[in-house]
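Archive entry. Fields below.
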Amino acid sequence: MRNNHTTGEYAISNAEARLASRTGTPAMDNDAFAGFYQRSAPSLHAYLARVSGNTALAEDLMQESYLRFLCATWPEGGEVNCRRYLFRIATNLLRDHWRRPRTASIEDVPERLLTSADATSGVHAQASLDPAMARMRPRDRQLLWLAHAEGYSHREIAEIMGLGAASVRLLLFRARRKMARMLREQTVPDRRKA
Amino acid sequence: MTIRTCSHETELAQALKAGHWPDGCPPDLRTHVGACRNCSELVLLTQAFQRARSESCTSVPADLASLLWWRAQLRRRNAANRRTSRPISIAQSFALLVNLAVAIVFVAWQYHHGLRWASWGSELELARVLHPFDIGSRLDGNALLVCSIGMLALLSGLVVYLASEKS
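PREDICTED_STRUCTURE:
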């Protein structure tokens, strides 16, 4: 029986990924990649946009993540591992972006400041999460999103972020406590206003 | 900071991930969450992040996948070209260095032997006057020198051309 840890019409099998790593050629053809892209792009875009706080930057980084993913040798383990690998590339790109010296540019202005309030969708969740997210350290934002939005385990987050599993546990615990405190502080004044 | 874990955390995390919270959970777990700080924080954060995720997960244009695919093909091909042309670039640089070294050695050697070629002009004039039909024999010693300079100039030109062609 073929060992296939994948789902969906265009899912990638272990055998194909192994073949790609041996030959250096892509295991996915154009159609297969289109399917993988459709399944993974929304969550990757959400991760990049929420963690960076900049939609334009998120789009750039998402495209670069997919380009690097397609040019790299893919990990074994089917689509689940490919998806995790994609998040790892995106996480490294975000880290590189934050390490670069900052220059004042129109690109750096968060998009929500450039668009009108009624043009934005999901105002409620943004209003509750974004101010607290903005006050968190970049690494904590990544940890929290991967754990609570994507549902990755400590081991998977460690793999994506290049950290030790024990460090992830401690860092995530601290970040969670801080974030929860900020969310509670935010909701108390809201209730008082109401 | 000490990490305090709760024995219900794993069960609660699974319920949240599966979307069973709160209605699909046993009443004792719900009561526990109300009293446990860890579990209440887990619920608060997971719900906030899940809501944010569902609102941010918009559909993406399908044609972008095709564009990315071709861009990746192009990038991979360029990388392969760079890999294959690296030995040629190294050979070109080596040839340029050898040419420069030969030129320097040649000039130094000539300088050491008193710059004899500087008097060629006057020798040629004198030879033309004295032996108008025997110029070749007068220049026997210098013929090799002329050929060497010519060859060196030709090779240098070729190497410089090949090195600059890529850029």
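CURATOR_NOTE: Residues 1-114 of chain A form one domain.
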